[in-house]
Design goal:
The chain is built from 12 helices and 6 strands. By secondary structure, the protein is an alpha+beta fold. The strands form 2 sheets. The protein has a 4-stranded antiparallel sheet with strand order 3-4-6-5, sandwiched between helices. Strands 1-2 form a two-stranded antiparallel sheet. A hairpin with a 2-residue loop joins strand 1 and strand 2.
Length: 266
């Protein structure tokens, strides 16, 4: 058994608590048996009403992987990782079966809740795969950038209506791991019985703590590279990350794209 502070934990919890995104990989490939275990772990995830409303597309064509790396926000590490999986919310398969059964559910699939159900199913499956991979000592990183050029990517993947790429996941043997980022204090995200609106002071403190984390990480990286640490260089905070995310990646085209693919029409 392990201890987290004064709390007793286990190997599964330790794996979860040590999660980091990995963007630097060695040339070593993940074994086929490991890949199958990852996929079966993904399939074991919970699913709303057991709809299993997701699909996993592994990109094994190297040229296609490079194209997707460029389209996903120009992130070259996607192409160098051992494996790249794209998790899709997928109600097309369910619709096709109902058509064969002469039951029309198309209008039901257009609703917001069906969209949420499929998106959550894909997310739960992906998280299972990520936890399984990290339990094997592998590194992972979610790729929300697959939505950056979602029209072109959907065409390359030949996605039908009622299917959209939620995100990708890269998996490989890590060449480098950062220290885990400090999360928001528990009292900022957890409350009892009703929502807690009084978290602004906690968030101010956290903003400074995360800025310190990035500064420390930069100093460590500089030392490892034999460079000056650059103490005077400002480092981003959590609030700056929030602003950058929503201003740099508004993706206002998403609703139009989803509507054209059958989603969220009512």
């Amino acid at each position: 058994m392990w201890h987290y502070g004064c709390m007793q934990t286990n190997q599964t919890i330790e794996t979860l608590l040590k999660h980091v995104s990995v963007r630097e990989f060695t040339d070593e490939k993940v074994g086929d048996d490991q890949v199958e275990l990852l996929l079966r772990s993904a399939q074991a995830a919970a699913s709303s009403n057991f709809l299993q409303a997701y699909s996993i597309i592994e990109i094994t064509d190297e040229e296609l992987k490079e194209d997707l790396a460029a389209l996903s926000g120009d992130q070259p590490f996607i192409a160098t990782a051992s494996n790249f999986f794209i998790f899709c919310a997928d109600l097309h398969r369910n619709e096709e079966l109902m058509i064969e059964k002469e039951v029309n559910i198309s209008q039901q699939l257009e609703g917001a809740d069906a969209f949420i159900v499929a998106t959550v199913d894909a997310s739960l499956a992906a998280q299972n795969l990520v936890v399984a991979a990290e339990s094997m000592g592998l590194g992972t990183c979610y790729i929300g950038g697959v939505r950056e050029n979602i029209v072109q990517i959907s065409q390359l993947l030949e996605l039908p209506n009622f299917v959209y790429p939620v995100f990708g996941v890269v998996v490989g043997h890590p060449a480098h791991r950062n220290a885990p980022k400090p999360r928001l204090p528990l009292d900022a995200v957890y409350s009892e019985n009703r929502y807690n609106p009084d978290t602004i002071e906690t968030m101010w403190e956290y903003d400074e703590a995360l800025q310190d984390y990035y500064a420390r990480r930069a100093r460590e990286a500089a030392r490892a590279a034999g460079e000056e640490a650059g103490e005077a260089t400002p480092h981003r905070s959590w609030s700056q990350g929030i602003a950058h995310t929503f201003f740099a990646h508004p993706r206002r085209f998403m609703m139009k794209f989803l509507n054209r693919r059958g989603w969220l029409r009512n």
